[in-house]
Amino acid sequence: MPKNRVSRPIILGIVGDSAAGKTTLSAGIAGIMGADRVAVICSDDYHSYSRAQRAENGISALDPKGNYIDILEQHLQLLRNGKPILKPVYNHDGGTLDAPEYVEPKPYIIVEGLLGYTTRAMRDCYDVKLYLDPEEELRVRWKIQRDTGKRGYTEEQVLASLEKRKADSPAFIHPQRTFADIVVQFYPPAQHAEETGAHLNVRHILRPTLPHPDLTPLLDPSANSGLHLELSRDSDGKPVDVLEINGNIPCERAVRIEELLWTLVPEASHLRANVGAYSNGDGSETSHPLALTQLFIGYHMVKAALGEHAI
Fold this sequence. Notes:
Elements: E1 10-16, H1 22-33, E2 38-42, H2 51-57, H3 69-80, E3 85-91, E4 96-103, E5 108-113, H4 120-123, E6 128-132, H5 136-149, H6 155-164, H7 168-173, E7 182-187, E8 201-206, E9 227-233, E10 239-245, H8 251-264, E11 277-279, E12 284-286, H9 288-305
Parallel strand pairs: 1-5, 1-6, 2-5, 6-7
Antiparallel strand pairs: 3-4, 7-8, 8-10, 9-10, 11-12
Helix pairs in contact: 1-9, 5-6, 8-9
C-alpha cells in the first residue's frame, strides 16, 4: 500500500553536458507520464546573456556567472510549492533572449539543462536527480549531429566551440555528477564503435539515495541475456549498483523487462506506444535501452508521487 500521496508537484532533474541526450530523455519521460501531466523546463533558458554578448564578454553558457542561477533557484522553489512562474526563454536557434513564458505547475515537472544542481537550495527541490554521462566521443558525435542538423552550424564551428569550452565542462558541469541519484551512461558496443543510436549500450549507476525496483526476477546468468546487475564502486569509491543493458538485448527479453516496469507504473500503462522513440535525423527509431531507461525513471517519479521516497 502506498504511503501518503504527495500533494505538491514531483520534480525530476536531468543534468548533463551539452548534447548529452537531456532533451531526448526528457521528451520520452514526458510521453510516458502524459504530456498533459508534465511540465518540461529547460534550465538553459536562464542564460543571462545572448550568444553575441557571450562572445563579447568571453563568458561561456556553461559558466554559472553567465546564468541567472538565483532566479532559477527561486523558480524551482515556487514550482515545488505549486505556484506558477514567469520563465525566461533562450532561443537556441538565434542565440537570443526572447519574451518570458508563463508556466503553471503540473503533477510532474522535468527540469533539464546544464546547471540544475549548482546550489544546495536547487538540489533540495528535486525528488529524483539524474545525471547523463555518455562516453565523450559519443557526446561529440551527438553534438555535431544536433548542431549541424538543427542549429545551422558547420562541423568546424561545432568543433571550435567544443575546444573553446574544454575547460568549462570539468569546472562547472562534471562536478554536478556527484549529486545525482542515478548516473546514465550511453556508450557504443565494442564491436560497433560507430554506433550512435538504437543499439547503444547503457549503464545505470544506481546510488542508494533512492529505493530502486527489484530486478532480480529478470536477471539471467547467461552471457547473452542483455541485462546485468552487479554491486560495484563509483568513481568516488562509494558502493553502487550498476545495471548494464546491452544495445542488442533480445527483443523478447526487453519486452519482459518493460512489462515488469509497466506493472510498477500502472497509471501510465495507456502510454506504452510512446516509449523508446527518438529522432535519428531521418525519422523516428525505437531503442530498447532508451525505453528501459525512460521507464526506470518514470517508475521513480510515480513512487515519489506516492510518497515512497519523498524528500
